[in-house]
């Protein structure tokens, strides 16, 4: 399953599966999608959940039982986000509703997922935002744009030189940034990671633009479960809390926390395991790669094959796939040889192609 990503990627998964973090680079003028597989629950009666699939080069959607609901007809299709799925035909993008019908006309040059009720779309070389009905919420005037998160979105505009900043849902500049900010990450748990040029370091700001954690890292991920994974040197990672205190350090690699656990690699070229927020090893390093926990399971790599473990480290699905993503609403996308599709938590194929 392809995943579109923005200008800056901070890896959260190692050796083949990837999570993504979105940021805007003030020195770039293009934006793409960073896709999360999750779909928010509807407050109304839950609709039939749909999953994108590709068949003979065309994309459609199946339900959780593997029945084809939307016949393959699109050039590209992404997973549902807030009840809308972006689809492409002939180089143009639009959106489906939760029943699989086109709800927003296929008309955009590019399109991101919906977040906080808005989606970034590109028209005539500029990015703006629409609401879930397709109505323009913020006029297309930006050279790049990221998803909204906690009511704010990072954008970049070239007027003489390229400048990045955050906007609110009215399109108004939300804050004054501290100095020469060149990369802007999404807000998460009240903080956003930024790269400040004067000191050539990654730090964190609050919603007022105040530096909360001074720029000192090579890179940094978004805060999750109170901690952020940061690169403290060219070879070592660790975790920082919201006061800027290093609470876990000296790791070769580390992902963000998810469901109380984080993937880590204690030594370069060594095996991966999982630790808790106290830095205590919960699952002994033994894997060649791994992903975040999702719905109680994590994809892990043994040799060249992927399987799934529970939080005790026990294999629930043996390592048998060439690649594997996390579970979302009971299904996970996997690849085995030339076959791709979705399996349930018993490893039963719900849908596959060819």
**Largest β-sheet summary:** 5 strands, antiparallel
Low-confidence stretches: 2-20, 27-45
Q: Averaged pLDDT, please?
A: 89
Termini separation comes to 15 Å
Q: Label the structural class.
A: mainly beta
Shape: flat
Number of DSSP helical runs? 0
CATH topology of the domain at 294-354: Lipocalin
Estimate percent helicity.
under 10%
CATH class bucket of the domain at 294-354: Mainly Beta
What percentage of amino acids are in beta strands? Answer: over 45%
* Gyration radius over CA: 20 Å
- Spatially, the strands of the biggest sheet line up as 1-16-17-18-19
Number of strands: 35
- How would you describe the oligomerization state of the chains in this entry? single chain
Instruction: Just name the CATH architecture of the domain at 294-354.
Output: Beta Barrel
Characterization of the model:
The protein is an all-beta fold and 354 residues long. It has a domain at 294-354: Beta Barrel (Lipocalin), CATH 2.40.128. Helix content is 0%, strand content 50%. It is built from no helices and 35 strands. It has strands spanning 24-25, 50-55, 58-63, 68-74, 76-77, 85-89, 92-96, 102-108, 110-115, 118-123, 126-131, 136-142, 144-145, 153-159, 161-167, 181-188, 191-196, 201-205, 211-217, 219-220, 228-231, 237-240, 246-251, 253-254, 262-265, 272-275, 281-287, 289-290, 298-302, 305-309, 315-321, 323-324, 332-336, 339-343, 349-353. The strands form nine sheets. A five-stranded antiparallel β-sheet has the order 1-16-17-18-19, with no helix packed on it. A four-stranded antiparallel β-sheet has the order 5-6-7-8, with no helix packed on it. Strands 9-10-11-12 form a four-stranded antiparallel β-sheet, with no helix packed on it.
């Amino acid at each position: 399953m392809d995943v579109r990503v923005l200008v800056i990627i901070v890896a959260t998964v190692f050796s083949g599966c990837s999570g993504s973090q979105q940021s805007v680079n003030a020195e770039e003028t293009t934006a793409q999608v960073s896709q999360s597989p999750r779909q928010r629950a509807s407050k109304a009666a839950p609709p039939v959940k749909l999953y994108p699939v590709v068949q003979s080069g065309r994309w459609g959607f199946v339900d959780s039982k593997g029945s084809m609901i939307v016949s393959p007809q699109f050039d590209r299709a992404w997973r549902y986000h807030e009840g809308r799925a972006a689809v492409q035909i002939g180089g143009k993008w639009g959106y489906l509703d939760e029943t699989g019908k086109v709800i927003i006309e296929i008309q955009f040059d590019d399109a991101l997922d919906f977040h906080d009720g808005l989606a970034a779309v590109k028209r005539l070389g500029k990015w703006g935002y629409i609401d879930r009905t397709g109505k323009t919420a913020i006029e297309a005037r930006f050279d790049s744009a990221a998803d909204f998160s906690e009511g704010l979105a990072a954008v970049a505009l070239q007027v003489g030189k390229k400048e990045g900043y955050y906007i609110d849902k009215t399109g108004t500049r939300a804050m004054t940034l501290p100095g020469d900010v060149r990369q802007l990450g999404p807000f998460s748990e009240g903080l956003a990671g930024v790269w400040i040029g004067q000191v050539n370091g990654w730090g964190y700001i609050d919603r007022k633009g105040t530096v909360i954690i001074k720029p000192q890292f090579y890179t940094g991920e978004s805060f999750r479960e109170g901690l952020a994974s940061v690169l403290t040197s060219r070879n070592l990672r660790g975790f920082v809390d919201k006061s800027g205190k290093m609470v876990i350090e000296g790791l070769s690699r580390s992902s963000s926390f998810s469901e109380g656990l984080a993937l880590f690699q204690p030594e370069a070229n060594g095996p991966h395991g999982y630790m808790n927020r106290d830095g205590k090893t919960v699952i002994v390093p033994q894997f060649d790669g791994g992903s975040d926990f999702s719905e109680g399971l994590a994809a892990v790599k043994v040799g060249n094959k992927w399987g799934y473990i529970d939080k005790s480290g026990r294999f629930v699905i043996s390592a048998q796939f060439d690649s594997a993503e996390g579970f979302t609403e009971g299904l996970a996308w996997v690849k085995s040889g030339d076959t791709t599709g979705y399996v349930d938590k018993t490893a039963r194929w719900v849908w596959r192609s060819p």
